[in-house]
Specification:
This protein starts with a strand and ends with a helix. The protein has a four-stranded mixed sheet with strand order 1-2-3-4. Strand 3 and strand 4 form a beta hairpin. It is an alpha+beta fold. The protein contains six helices and four strands, in the order E-H-H-H-H-H-E-E-E-H. It has a single domain, classed as Beta-carbonic Anhydrase, Chain A, CATH 3.40.1050.10. Helices cover 48% and strands 21% of the residues.
């Protein structure tokens, strides 16, 4: 079984640039191109989180970007075929830098939950031993 983790992190400069607009990276052609992969994140954040600002808005963008990139991965033929066969599992995580905590997205709950506080959160098999030791 192949396992893929898409992991975002708090205080993400790329997501901050995404929220600030294209002018914030106008002189950085490579960064501008890379942020093109997160255009859906920018739209989702603007449409659904207009009531937020500052770190709350940035956190929402980071979390949404993890979900957007998971959806992007699902569109790749090799990944899609692996998912259908049960040969690939995808995980969405957010690492909180200041606290050293990892939050995993739980689709059934529609939210990110802290590891290892929620033993029901699925973790990749390679991480199982490490998570068990943390508990």
């Amino acid at each position: 079984m192949k396992e893929i983790i898409v992991c975002g992190h708090t205080y993400c400069g790329a997501m901050q640039a995404l929220l600030s607009g294209p002018e914030s990276v106008a002189d950085l052609r490579a960064a501008r191109a890379w942020l093109g992969h997160a255009e859906a994140t920018r739209r989702i954040t603007r449409e659904n989180y207009a009531h937020l600002e500052g770190n709350s808005l940035l956190t929402a963008a980071v979390q949404e970007n993890v979900l957007v990139q998971l959806e992007n991965l699902r569109t790749h033929p090799v990944v899609a075929a692996g998912l259908v066969r049960g040969a690939i599992k995808l995980y969405g995580w957010v690492y909180k830098i200041d606290k050293g905590e990892v939050f995993a997205y739980v689709p059934e709950r529609g939210q990110f939950l802290a590891l290892p506080e929620h033993p029901s959160v699925p973790v990749p098999s390679a991480m199982q031993l490490a998570v068990t030791r943390i508990i």
